[in-house]
Amino acid sequence: MDDEKELMENEENINEQESKTEVKTRKSNNVGMFVLVALIFTVLNIGIIVGGDYIKPLVESTFGKTQGVTVEEKVKDFKFEDVVYDDTDLASSKGVEKPGIAGIVKSVNNSIVAITTKTTVTDWFDMEYASEGAGSGIIFNITDDKVMIATNQHVVADANKVTVTLLVDKTYTAYSVGSDVDTDLAVIYINKKDIEKDVQDKLVAAKFGNSDELEVGEQAIAIGNPLGSEFTNTVTVGIISAINREIEVSNRKYKLLQTDAAINPGNSGGALLNYKGEVIGINSVKIVDTTVEGIGFAIPSNTAKPIIEELVNSGNIKRPFLGIYGADITDSLADLYELPVGVYVQNVIENGSAGAAGLEKGDVIIAADGQKILSMEQLTNIIKNHKVGDMVTIKYIRELKDKREVKVKLQDKTTFKQGNIENTRERVVPRFNY
After folding, report:
1. 210-214 own/partner pairs: CB under 8 Å, 24+ apart
2. Three-state secondary-structure class, residue 74
3. pLDDT tens digits for 37-70?
4. Is 21 left (phi over 0), alpha (psi -120 to 50) or beta?
């Protein structure tokens, strides 16, 4: 049974949706929990209040549905390098009246927004209620007709309606441009025509800096909305504690900036700034544990920029898609069950790349692109290094005796409806029967 448990724990699913609240790390010291910062996107109200009579009405969906950006409306070929900044708004310029942290905050404050979401949730009795949440966002571009905002995917995931608060107290309806669960990034926008002229004149696009130039020990400033609108544009200060810190959240590994600047529920999607007032990270994750303090994480700006650009230009991120659910067959499991070391195919996604090439549930993948496969993580990394449409050579064993080789044409993950993926997932049969 311990070996079966090990197999279950090693299972990786490259299609799994992001967890909305929290997940435990898999480190042996069990340091604590990584919490997506909007818990760290903070849940403000969950439809029914225990002991009370207050029930929020259901929310009519206006976000990411009929009013999203159409292909014709998209800003074509958007690049951060093309954004024109007013140097007098940057903390490093002579135009800032106050030096140091105060000057940095003054220069960027009007670029940081509060985000409120409304989502329909279902309780144990199949009754639907409205849940309200809060996060933060960063204005990164202002066009003739739109104010473009970057945030975390988990902040706006599954939202029926999203509103954005500018300049602390001006609230407007926002619409979806696109989001990417694999990097936890999303882009939303406000129609400029909805914003009063005096408010428009005060808005500033934050300048994204070069996170590759950061060094451990540099000053870091976090701006966001912990606990929602009650503490809008809260500023905390610390240092860059580590660079390229690898953490795992919901079976996905991220390389993030670590900081001790306080990041609290509601800070998700907010800015982590350097001493120049440039955005060098998007706040995303923190560790929550009674024995831990001051460990927060941000998506590096150089990771975020190309994703944001692609979301603006195309609305999604094209990623190669193998289309399997797999589990590691380790050396110990291989010895116990007399199996080859590799990846056990628990199931194949309907109409996915692997299924179209002939792979079936129960196959064991032993090589890809000429590399011996030892884990699902290794296989996933090989696939990630390809582009949509590439051919990948897969070697596998069927029924523990028949060694086969097949070429798989990688499809675009975004073309698959999540419902189809989830339905396949529900049909997964536990690993081995014995």
Report:
1. 210/280, 210/301, 210/302, 211/257, 211/280, 211/281, 211/300, 211/301, 211/302, 211/303, 212/300, 212/302, 214/240, 214/243, 214/257, 214/274, 214/280, 214/300
2. coil
3. 434 554 443 332 222 222 333 334 455 543 444 4
4. alpha
Q: Which domain holds residue 373?
A: 320-426
Same domain assignment for residues 184 and 259: no
Q: Which of 268, 301, 353, 375 is catalytic?
A: 268
What CATH number corresponds to the domain at position 158?
A: 2.40.10.10
The pLDDT assigned to 138 comes to 97
Q: Please indicate, yes or no, whether residues 324 and 308 belong to a single structural domain of this protein.
A: no
In a shared domain, residues 148 and 250:
no
Based on the residue annotation, tell me whether 260 is a catalytic residue of this protein.
no
pTM here? 0.74
Angle at alpha carbon of residue 188, lines to 185 and 191, rounded to 5° = 165
Overall number of domains in the chain: 3
Whether residues 50 and 180 fall in one domain: yes
Q: How far is CA 232 from each of CA 165, 226, 249, rounded to the nearest angstrom?
A: 9, 7, 27
**Residue 267: what are its φ and ψ, rounded to 5°?**
-80, -15
Candidate list 184, 260, 328, 363, residue with the active-site label: 184
Q: Pick the catalytic residue: 89, 136, 154, 301?
A: 154
361 and 325: one domain? Answer: yes
**Catalytic: 154?**
yes
Known catalytic membership, residue 386: no
Q: Which two tokens stand for residue 217?
A: 């020990």
